[in-house]
Amino acid sequence: MALWFRESASPAHRLEWKIRQELYSGQSPFQSIQVLDTEQFGPSLVLDGIMQTTTGDEFIYHEMLAYVPLLAHPHPRRVLIIGGGDGGLAREVLKVPGVEEVVLVEIDPVVVEVARRFLPQHTVALDDPRLTLIHADGAAYLTDQKTEPFDVILVDSTDPEGDGPGTVLYTPAFHQALYEGLADDGLYVQQTGAAFYNPEVVEQVSHSVVTRFPLCRVYWCTVPTYPGALFTFTSGSKRYDIQKPSTPLTWPTRWYTPQIHQLAFALPPYLSQRLPET
Ligand code: AAT
């Protein structure tokens, strides 16, 4: 009998993946962790019952979370990634010319271990000498760290679900810590979820960001894996307008182009009506 993994997009809409095999199942101190070999998208990471990243479509999310901010910033030397223990985002960040140092703060060591075992496409850059891996809560790291400021911070986290580890990364206190952790011309982006079903996430984050950062922008891409496909990112910037690519793209990509970069900021009115004036 075929095995299916099922996730609720809403109480009345479900997504299902046909599973070849469960590759891993465990419980860490932070969350439940599964790696499922899906027939459509290959090996895929599920945390607390929510699909996080699949081998087949991860390039869309990771390219858009890395390249929009990094190619809008003219010299992104020091980059902080919060979450992203699967390594897919770090892989893209480390392709950008001029990136000298990446600090990856992932709360859960088990995510990194299982990604190394089962998601090799994601983890190819985790041993790059420019990368430092720290296991800590990203919010606590930012508040406690006494190191020099970052040019770019990328928040590749789980959604704000109940008492899950990602919830703290959607609070005004965290946005204040982000502001303080960035250089005078720094900028940040965080994933703000599937905007058809959870538009309140992007709404709340953008209202918090706009009170702290001179520039707040929302952009999107489509990810088949995430409910409703329409997926959003919210950014805060101290100086540079993240809508405008300033560094040329000189390496192959599968989703990102400078034209997609600019089009990604065109928002449907049902969503823009919820967002603050910027
Ligand atoms: N690269 C795409 C994968 C993810 S997983 C998000 C990661 O964020 C997980 O490994 C989780 O352990 C980590 N995380 C959650 N909270 C924190 C925290 N407070 N500090 C550091 N790391 C954290 C994201 C996919 C997006 C899913 C959209 N539904």
Summarize the structure in words:
- By secondary structure, this protein is an alpha/beta fold.
- The protein has 2 domains: 52 residues, Roll (Spermidine Synthase, Chain: A, domain 2); 215 residues, 3-Layer(aba) Sandwich (Rossmann fold), CATH 3.40.50.150.
- It is 27% helix and 33% strand.
- It is built from 9 helices and 12 strands.
- A 7-stranded mixed β-sheet has the order 8-7-6-9-10-12-11, with helices on both faces. Strands 1-2-3-4-5 form a 5-stranded antiparallel β-sheet.
- The mean pLDDT is 96.
Relevant terms:
33% strand; seven-stranded mixed beta sheet; single chain; 278 residues; 2 domains; Spermidine Synthase, Chain: A, domain 2; 9 helices; alpha/beta; five-stranded antiparallel beta sheet; 12 strands; binds S-adenosyl-1,8-diamino-3-thiooctane; Rossmann fold
Mean pLDDT: 96
How many β-strand stretches? 12
* CATH fold call of the largest domain: Rossmann fold
Top CATH class of the largest domain: Alpha Beta
CATH architectural type of the largest domain: 3-Layer(aba) Sandwich
Q: How do the SSEs run, as a string of H and E?
A: EEEEEHEHEHHEHEHEHEEHH
Gyration radius (Cα, Å) is 18 Å
Give the arrangement of secondary structure elements.
Blueprint (H helix, E strand, L loop, with lengths): L2 E8 L2 E15 L4 E7 L3 E6 L2 E5 L3 H15 L5 E6 L4 H6 L7 E5 L3 H10 L1 H4 L7 E4 L3 H7 L5 E7 L15 H10 E13 L4 H12 L4 E8 L7 E8 L20 H6 L5 H4 L6
Parallel strand pairs: 6-7, 6-9, 7-8, 9-10
Antiparallel strand pairs: 1-2, 2-3, 3-4, 4-5, 10-12, 11-12
The structure holds S-adenosyl-1,8-diamino-3-thiooctane.
The site of S-adenosyl-1,8-diamino-3-thiooctane has 30 residues, from strand 5, strand 6, helix 2, helix 5 and strand 10.
